[in-house]
Amino acid sequence: MRASAPGKIILFGEHAVVYGRPAIAVPVLHVRADAVIRSAGERTVRINAPGIGRRYGLSSARPDDPIATIVRLTCARLGVAPEYFEVHIESSIPVARGLGSGAAVSVAIARALGNFFARPFEPETLSALAYECEKLYHGTPSGIDNTVIAFARPVYFVRGRPLEPFEVARPFLIAIGDTGVSSPTKIAVGDVRRAWEADRERFEALFDRIGEIAREARQHIEQGNNAALGELMNQNQELAHAIGVSSPEIERLVEAARRAGALGAKLSGAGRGGNVIALVETDAQEAVERAMLHAGARRVITTLVKS
Ligand code: PMV
Predict the structure, then answer these.
(1) 76-90: average pLDDT
(2) In the prediction, which pLDDT does 114 show?
(3) Average predicted confidence (pLDDT) for the chain
(4) CA gap 102, 21 in Å, rounded
(5) Strand duo 23-39 + 300-305: pairing
(6) How far apart are CA 139 and CA 45, in angstroms?
(7) What lines the ligand 1 site, CB under 6 Å?
(8) Angstrom distance (rounded) from CA 204 to CA 16
(9) Is pLDDT at 165 greater than 80 in this prediction?
(10) How many of the other CB atoms lie within 10 Å of CB of 12?
(11) What is the pLDDT of residue 98?
(12) DSSP class of residue 272?
């Protein structure tokens, strides 16, 4: 039984979303995590994740192992014992680059297990199961990654609130450039928390401005006013810099993309590394991709954002 889940990018609002402000995220459908569940003769569960060079038994996994956790949680939800099957995971989503690889692996496994036991899950349930595992990646996840990945559609997300319907009036292109720098979400989120604790007034004001940008961006996307998004991305990037999550590698790619004709560019996800996203029109797409590669991007993929 095979199931998969897409990657994702955050268009607006990362970090501020942890503090209750809105954010916008969209799926990236051509990078995916796949999970395959097969019956097995042993009274245990074998986990095979060749992409990260790991093969181990559920019973020997560490208590905080995210793959073991999603297997156990999903089985508990289904009311079945975790035994007599094998979990095989393949993912084309780079790890620790802000593309949601952890949440995608969790959703793919939970979805495959639901199908394997002939009890397919609704996206809400998949999202809730993956959220429990997100807590292992970092202590205070907003829930945006598991939501956008489980629903596989653009989301306007506010922590703790049900998903709001959100339409993309006119599809648009986002070039995603990989800085090549791995940046665990936990570290960036923890650093922002310490900075916020040290100067709450300043950080609350910065988060307010980031939240305003996400609100405005939603209106533009719903009205098909895509060109206006570029300037909002640039403003969001400045604020990301102000909260301390940009980096020289990010700024090199942001600059290169803008100079090559992108309408706007910013980091996406936790920052400090990971991916830079740039809004491009069709005729600038190639030039922006080339410019980002020339400025040090490991790879660039361009995705069409649509409802
Ligand atoms: O998983 P990443 O790197 O895309 O980061 C998630 C976005 C944050 O806002 C930084 C954290 C969160 O839980 O929303």
Answers:
(1) 96
(2) 98
(3) 95
(4) 23
(5) unpaired
(6) 27
(7) 10, 14-15, 17-18, 98, 100, 141-142, 144-145, 185, 189, 269-270, 274
(8) 9
(9) no
(10) 28
(11) 82
(12) S
Residue 113 has pLDDT above 80, yes or no: yes
Give burial (CB, 10 Å; 0-12/13-18/19+) of 24: buried
Nearest atom in ligand 1 to the alpha carbon of residue 188 is 10
Q: For 35-62, what is the mean pLDDT?
A: 93
pLDDT at residue 164 in the model: 80
Centroid of ligand 1 to alpha carbon of 190 (angstroms): 11
Dist. CA 27–CA 153, nearest whole Å: 6
10 Å CB burial of residue 171 (0-12, 13-18, 19+) is exposed
Shortest-distance atom of ligand 1 to CA 8: 4
Q: Is the pLDDT of residue 184 over 90?
A: no
Burial of 52 (0-12, 13-18, 19+ CB in 10 A): exposed
Q: Is the pLDDT of residue 225 over 80?
A: yes
pLDDT of 18:
96
How far apart CA 281 and CA 276 sit, in angstroms, is 16
178 is catalytic: no
Q: Ligand 1: which of 145, 157, 193 to mutate, most ligand atoms within 8 Å of CB?
A: 145
* DSSP summary character for residue 84: S
